[in-house]
Each structure stands twice: as C-alpha cells, then as structure tokens.
Specification:
The chain has one domain. Helix content is 40%, strand content 0%. It is built from 4 helices and no strands. Helix 2 runs parallel beside helix 4. The model has no long low-confidence stretch (mean pLDDT 88).
Length: 100
C-alpha cells in the first residue's frame, strides 16, 4: 500500500486538470507499507498506543478474495510531471491534524 492524503491528492488532480500530460499516472503517497504498519502509525499520531493494533496473516483468512501481497504504486512520474508534493503518511497526518 502507498497511502495518499486527500489534500495532496486534490491538489494533484487540480494540477493535472491544467496540465497537458496524457497517459497513466499514479497518484500515491511516498511510503510503502502494510495495513498493519499504516494502522500503527495512524494510532500513534492520534495519541493511541501502537501496541493496541494486532497483526494478522491475511493468507490465513479463508473468507476473502485472493489479493496480491503488494499493491503499492510508484509515484515517480507524478513527481516529474507535477509540482505538487506527494507526502508520506507521517507528513500528511501532521498536516491534517494541524488543521483540526
């Protein structure tokens, strides 16, 4: 996973609308992580103990559709085409929490 914050995503979409770029572009955050890692970092930013988050092995879950283990995206092209910085999770959480 490469989580992206909605503020940066919105700015990137506006920039793309006024850009002459044509093709496929991945708009994603800078951090590649598992759902477990993401949940622990979000918990910590919100003032909760990351130890409250329990890990599980998704391969052992039998009632869900099969998914690839890595669905992360590279945002290198977005960085080259756009002036909009695509932030990592920690930077995005800090910015979002400052607004509230």
């Amino acid at each position: 996973r490469t989580p992206v914050d909605v503020l940066a995503l919105g700015q990137a979409l506006v920039a793309l609308a006024g850009n002459d770029f044509a093709g496929v572009i991945h708009l994603s955050g800078n951090d590649r992580m598992t759902r477990y890692q993401m949940a622990r970092r979000i918990a910590a930013h919100l003032g909760y103990s990351a130890d409250l988050i329990e890990s599980t092995d998704s391969a052992k879950l039998t009632d869900r559709a099969t998914r690839p283990p890595d669905v992360s995206m590279l945002n290198t092209l977005a960085g080259n085409v756009l002036d909009t910085p695509m932030r990592g999770l920690d930077e995005a959480m800090t910015a979002i929490l400052k607004q509230n």
